[in-house]
């Protein structure tokens, strides 16, 4: 049956005399249009397939394009035999045609025209891992050279520059940032020329700002700021007037409202003069005191008005802080000062490139960026450019929204005015991290939409053939509200036919955390990570329940045009990230009897079997590494129990003590000693066996190719077969085979040894570069798919559940690294080494503001991609504190549900509020033997014996089943939470405290951060008085450098910090600091018992110090305590934290060898210490 194209699709197919930009919405059939257009051009004889350039963004997409084109040609040959001869020639040409990625096209250009730029044609493409290794080596060599030749670049000394812009103790972060800056820079054509030109903008002075692009940037940022501030001010005015408080508004708020209107009007007009800056600096806010007749009405709106006023105050103050503090003259002077350091940094990047290029040349390698830049250099040659222009009569670019600057430049040099077909959807541009520039799409769309443009046309494809009508209606409702550019041209139209009874309505499920006291009280003071983990588990359990209700219900399969029951394979769970949350979701689904599979490519090294395998090969390479050695001994390979490992250590310590030696030795010495003379025969034999095998394998490692050796050890050790018997055995074995394949590929590129291969893998691990875990799932496997939204792009599923809608979105903070924006330029922060002070410059702030705005737009596009994957049913799920908290006014929403709050309840969706139920998950699967016993017949003799043996084997229950999904390491906070839940008091204090303005965990973290940052030697002056100015300055420094959020900082009572140091306990801590015997934020790992099993517990001790040969321990707490119920609260707090303090005391005592005689909880809310020990 022939495809019936819409009018818009036919226009895109038939317009072959102009350049075309097709803005193709999700599910609008853009690939079919592209293929049909190519076929039409071939049939009409306008061009052969090898006279076209078709560019895609992945090799898989290029292969799929060739396959679809081949099928279309074959189909045409069958339907039109008279064209068979011509089409046969086209079919033969498809697989050598220019249908490829940008990288592959660049390679073909280089191999054809290498002689024009004196290049060698026999290069190899460097993969990401090789490039990463060479870049890191180049950075190391650059540093070595810099330390030996301090003045090798003009403008500054190498050591001087590092003192300013590198970490004090470690240069690795700076090296990584340098490599990232180089990679970003290379997305621009002629990148160093571009960078030096942009650096000149750092010399703009205040008196020259008028009419400059920098003024435009500041004005643009002010326009956005004041638009939001005015919106909040208008809402506040409306609330006041609606409450009958017009007189109060006129008296208290009208002047600030008038000022906001004035500043906003000038900002929107693009003005940024001294008058406007004066108004911004001098704006003041009235005190909201009420008169008697106003009090009742004011009480009803007071909280809402405070939120709105805080919002516009914070917006204006934030803009002032970015650009006007301390004053504009100073900020320009600071920016000007960074010019020489920015130029120096570019010199470092050039030197880095020289070293990196030499390393690639030595191995005859080119990385992907090289290929594009060399191709650009070639095309600058008129002969090459003209050859390619003549060759390609038509150019096609798929996924155009993901093009970057260098790729656009490359195409522009070989394209004509009327022969380029670009297709994409800017609403689905979600690869900013790969330097995609959606602004390119938007600019070309504007140009092609111009009615006077005779050479080009823009066409919108908005009919969606994927989703049912109710899903489309809700998508339109949402994005008309939240996406600025979502107009009639962007709006989706229904193109999918679905019976009304199966036209399912989208659902929004909000899980509220407020009011679930039995667990919330226990976790309120826990680490943020623990709170988030608990929420993720509860949300996962809820999603599992939704899926249980979905599976088995009838739906209309729009793909097969039949009604059938829902299966697990019809469902996908989409998340922003799955590295941790995916595993949590998998466990919840498994407990509900639902099979699932995580489609994720970045967690290969997290697989347990890979970790053990790498530990084994690390031991073979060098046995003198305790952590991998202990891991391998405890693994299934050698099977040592924890008690045997501990006994071996204890016996060795006794042996050394008898010799008069007390030094604690590495564990490899323990194993070698035990293999020869250990007292326990069983352990001695086990140690001898382990040492013998490791030595045997080490000898073999020098005689075999690395890949053959790895495979032999995996088989010889039995580990390959062991993992095959585990849960998910097929996938685990496939992961080990991937390791062997990686070794084989590595050996092809270099002279490989086991040591060099392990180093290579370590780089992959550190850089998060991986092959991905082997996927053993096909369309035939009936499992729920769990994947990232990015990975789902281009796919579709009948039932889509988007989870994590209440999680915080990613945000970038400013740092000391190079700021980069392809439109604005580059910039470094200003650093004053004398005052140990650094601040972002005006340029960096402008870059960051633009970057944050672009990041927010991309988050909206990511949400659009997620919601448009659904064919039949869309479900959005997320957890929040409360519905009321969600609906509070905010100018900077941080969660998807906050962004969507105006469209969470509409006529186009169903809306559910549910409690966030944290509960233990119980596995619902029944045992196989239940079925066997139900069908058992009377047997006798040999048959009965066989049956009993089968029954014994199938009825076997693993004795440590409770540890299958347990972790080997817990934090102290997790154990405290479990303790509180288990020993919950029979009577609860029912009194409610006022609602906190910020999260309790955030506030607690802020107090801890201040206490950690303060130098206790400086908090008391020479006269013994508390130096409040010092404490204030350090707290403000943390605020300024984003270590504490502004909203949290406002809730901090700094007097509580003073009062700690005025207390007897605080004075003792200060005295201990003067003696050099106080430690803060001391991390530890401790062995402990949990339900009869040994585990490792990790934690951080806030403060401890030595006093008269004994240890004193302090743990800071910000829990709210009521003075009127002090003794009841005291008992609750002591009971709640007993487990934690006992563990801390044990850790301190074992770590220092000194007894812990006193331990205190210092309660900031009361400025009191609670004695827990002593």
Secondary-structure blueprint:
Elements: H1 7-14, E1 19-24, H2 30-43, E2 52-56, H3 59-79, H4 84-93, E3 98-101, H5 102-113, E4 124-125, H6 128-148, H7 158-165, H8 172-185, H9 191-199, H10 213-242, H11 246-252, H12 254-268, H13 274-282, H14 295-323, H15 328-337, H16 339-363, E5 365-366, H17 368-379, H18 382-391, E6 394-397, H19 405-412, E7 420-424, H20 438-449, E8 456-461, E9 463-464, H21 469-482, E10 493-494, E11 507-512, H22 517-523, H23 528-550, E12 554-557, E13 562-565, E14 571-575, H24 581-591, E15 596-599, H25 608-621, H26 626-634, H27 642-658, H28 667-677, H29 681-701, H30 706-716, H31 719-724, H32 729-749, H33 754-766, E16 784-788, H34 789-792, E17 797-802, E18 819-821, E19 825-827, E20 830-832, E21 837-839, H35 842-867, E22 870-880, H36 883-886, H37 896-899, E23 910-915, H38 928-934, H39 941-954, E24 969-971, H40 972-982, H41 1000-1013, H42 1028-1040, H43 1046-1049, H44 1055-1062, H45 1064-1075, E25 1078-1090, E26 1093-1107, E27 1110-1117, H46 1126-1152, E28 1156-1163, E29 1168-1173
Parallel strand pairs: 1-7, 1-8, 2-3, 2-6, 4-5, 6-7, 9-10, 11-22, 11-23, 14-16, 14-17, 15-16, 17-22, 24-26, 27-28
Antiparallel strand pairs: 12-13, 18-19, 20-21, 25-26, 26-27, 28-29
